Amino acid sequence: ASNFGSLRVAWRFRTDNFGPRPEISLQATPLYASGALYAAVGSRRTAVSLDPATGELNWTRRFDERPRTFPRGLSGRGLAYWESGTTRRIFMVSPGYQMLSIDATTGALDPAFGTKGVLDMRTLLGYTVEDLAKAEIGLHSAPIVANGVIIVGSAHLAGGAPPTKEHIKGVVMG
């Protein structure tokens, strides 16, 4: 409280150009881990890594998944971080309900995770290829990693129907 009046802006990071239109309601909480700042930004939910001292951009990871519907679009509310030994990963859920495993140092997708770094959670729920583009399930919250398990919720289009029992097939949804 004693130094609040002397605080000054050290740097700014603009997210206007991360998507076809500026983010109007950025709600993502940046995540600091292992000397870097990570965030989900923009209307396409781009993952970014920043130098926390200077605001300089280290890397970006944009994931284009059109023509899927995005019942929970925009930047979302954040990312998850996990490390084991020298392996460091950022986990992010795309607007179209796909989980990305991103190397926290380079921004590259982790080829050992899912299919070339991407796990299509709509497919895990049993949606057919024909249903994938219009399935009204997504996530706006950040995933959580606890004891090596990635926990992901789900959200549906307002007024939309949740998945049927045929779509669940033993997957626990939160």
Task: Give an account of the 3D structure.
The structure is a single chain. The protein has 3 helices and 12 strands. It has a 4-stranded antiparallel β-sheet, with no helix packed on it. 7% of the residues lie in helices and 29% in strands. It has 174 residues and is mainly beta.
Distance between the termini: 39 Å
Sum up the overall morphology in one term: globular
> What is the residue-averaged pLDDT?
82
User: Mind describing the biggest β-sheet?
Assistant: 4 strands, antiparallel
Helix content: under 10%
Strand content: 25-35%
Order of helices and strands: EEEEEEEEHHEEEEH
Low-pLDDT sequence parts: 167-174
Structural class: mainly beta
Number of E-type strands: 12
Ordered list of secondary-structure elements with their pairings:
Layout: E1 31-33, E2 36-41, E3 46-50, E4 57-61, E5 80-84, E6 87-93, E7 98-103, E8 118-120, H1 121-124, H2 129-132, E9 137-138, E10 144-146, E11 149-151, E12 155-156, H3 165-168
Antiparallel strand pairs: 1-2, 2-3, 3-4, 5-6, 6-7, 7-8, 9-12, 10-11
List the main descriptive attributes of the protein structure presented here.
4-stranded antiparallel sheet; mainly beta
Task: Summarize, please.
The chain has 174 residues and is mainly beta. It has helices spanning 121-124, 129-132, 165-168; strands at residues 31-33, 36-41, 46-50, 57-61, 80-84, 87-93, 98-103, 118-120, 137-138, 144-146, 149-151, 155-156.
